[in-house]
Amino acid sequence: MQKQTSGSVSQMQSLGPIPSLPNYQTDGFFDELVDKNNVARPDAEELVSLFNRFPPQELSRRQHAIEQALFRMGITFTVYSDKTGTEKIMPFDVVPRIVSAILWKHIDAGLRQRIRALNRFLCDVYNERAIIKEGIIPEELVDTAPAYLQECRGLKPFNDVWCHITGTDLVRDNTGTVYVLEDNLRCPSGVSYVLQNRHVMKRNFPQVFGASRVRPVTDYTSRLFQLLRDVAPPHVSDPTVVVLTPGVFNSAYYEHSFLAQRMGVQLVEGRDLVVEGEFVYMKTTRGLQRVDVIYRRVDDTFLDPKTFRKDSVLGVKGLMDVYRAGNVCLANAPGTGIADDKVIYAFVPDMIKYYLDEEPILPNVPTYVCQKEEDRKYVLAHMDELVIKAAGESGGYGILIGPHATPEEREEFAQKIKEDPRNWIAQPTLELSRAPTVVDDHLEGRHVDLRPYILCSRPDDVWVLPGGLTRVALRKGSLVVNSSQGGGSKDTWVVAEQGQAVASAHDDETGPVDH
Amino acid sequence: MLSRVAESIYWMSRQAERAENLARFIEVTLHMTLDQPEYLVDPWKPLVQVTGDNEWFKAKYGSANCQNVVQFLAFDREYHSSMLTCLRASRENARSVREALSTEAFEELNDFYHFVRDSSPAQLTDPTADFFEQVRDHALMWTGVLDNTMPHNTAWHFLNVGRLLERADKTSRILDVKYFNLLPRVEDVGTAVDDLQWSTLLLAISGFEAYRREHQLMDIEKIVAFFLFHRTFPRSIYSCVAGVDRSLREIESESESELPGQARQRIAALRHRLENTNVKEVIAGGMHQFIDRLQIELNAVGDSLGQDYFYATQTA
After folding, report:
1. Distance in Å, alpha carbon of B94 to nearest chain A alpha carbon
2. Which segments of chain A belong to CATH 3.40.50.11290?
3. What are A4's strand-pairing partners?
């Protein structure tokens, strides 16, 4: 239920003066919605004008209404320290982040390019290793990466696709330049929040949403389902797709359940699956039923206690044998984590040149690889300016933000770098862009990043969801947007170009999905 | 469907039904105490006895009164079968199979749980029949949402089995309380006092009006027959048992196995027995004994489900 634009969308603001946010302060940061004089950027005029017309308290009233709706939908996590079972929603901010059509075009092209290169790299690094033989990436960096799985050497997933689903983290600096911060090729989460944030925003801001010509995100789950069917073992005509979750105690459980429900497939746990012969089956009330495609949200090393961690109770014994025999597709393929290694990340621009013979569209954040002596010296001398990251960590763990750290913390990290240089990289501290965010009854700037979601069903067939999760560091001045560290999220409105589909504010995004 | 999902759905529905019935117990008792003639037996103690957990209660609370029985049955987080514990468990089960339910169903149960949880401080201070009536309304909404937003497929039949087995058990306990513990003095039979008590009991299963329309006068045999054997009243024991039988048949016709499962055999036998027993025999043979045996048979059906359909989760 999307309608094509006719090209003559009413521009309510086009006749009056351009609205601005009178009491807002950009504090010298690049702001996503207004320029340095607090004047609305072109695509944010409707929104800013609406805020100005709101009676006092209306903003916080809507903030509250949306929080209630999310609570009612059960999109919550339990506060474990509290015995009475207090539940909280993931913090949500009602002010959407708006991305112009032209900026999105750039991001879309950049991400498609990057995924094509990364997927080629994964094929290569587990097989021919041409990029190593050419001397572009040192062999030892690959072989010492904790996420490189020797067990996956020589494997060729169907369609040559390794990274079916990616959630790339992007940031913008003071000039508005978009950088890739992390690639997240393992089990990126958050897409359910994109869909649910959109759902509640459309219910609470229908007019401004309708007038802002926002591109729809509704069809993500049907595209995901189509992708999963496309990558099934070739001999299966009507593949059975399941989502594999670690279980109800996992922090992303809601998302696993949401995606299974929207795709209309079974949500299974490891204990629901069993390997017999060369196939994997699920245990149903009618006996065993064969499974062909597993969208697994269980980490690589927990997938199969026979091949990887012996103590894993989340996996399925013998699953990797079925995978090697070509009788099940795992999405994403085990082993993709090598490309998430923060040292390997530094080489992605080189991969793009090597595999695609193209210049990178989206730049990396400049990265110092502590393994290199020259870089290490620089890092150790500039600890107070840099962000230091552990190569194998994610989720905001193992990070030191130099300018915000104490001398003791810096010293501690310097020691770690000297002890194990392979495991550390450093990047300049970016002045992350900000977006207006509700604080009590008014708006203040808070730093944001952006995680778009990318689906890859063939090496050259890459699709980017026009939207994404805008994560916001709710604490004043904080640069850490991870939900585990006090971050929240916003809806992301990607503005349509002429001729592109626009989401209607009256679509019900919780409606059934056609298969 | 997945065995684990079937099992969770079955328990989700059973636990919500259990919570509803506890609310019904408490609501009618609160009502009854307001109309209480001075010679009525203490109404709270039997509510504890009927749970079968009177030792546990005694150790924690001592002797029963309105306050502590409401706390025990409705809000005690330590008691494994309090209304709040049941709703919480039900919701946890729902959460673990959310993808197999309708969105409306999950959201209603979520609301239901939060409503009860958020009301507990006020109700612990001053319990009101009004609150428990609202709980009943939530429960009716929940069953209505389940029945009208989900296809009546295998998943629905498993939840129907859970709901009806639990309901049959609780209807039998309501009757048992009255018959065994509130047994009126012989001279009270047929008096206004007795009428009041029986009416209250019928109210607890929403059956007062239905009974009145059929029989007008309060009559022990007819009331017992209404509880046990009524063919169409949705909370009568026969009705529940027949519903379980139908749902198990449906589940079985969906499965590929040739032989009828043990659960199905047991429920069919129970249904047959109920069809061929009359109320005079029940009263002559001892009502309590009859109900005891019924409860054992209902439990056996529940146990057989584990072997017939959920076994896979246990052997994993």
Report:
1. 10
2. 234-327
3. A501
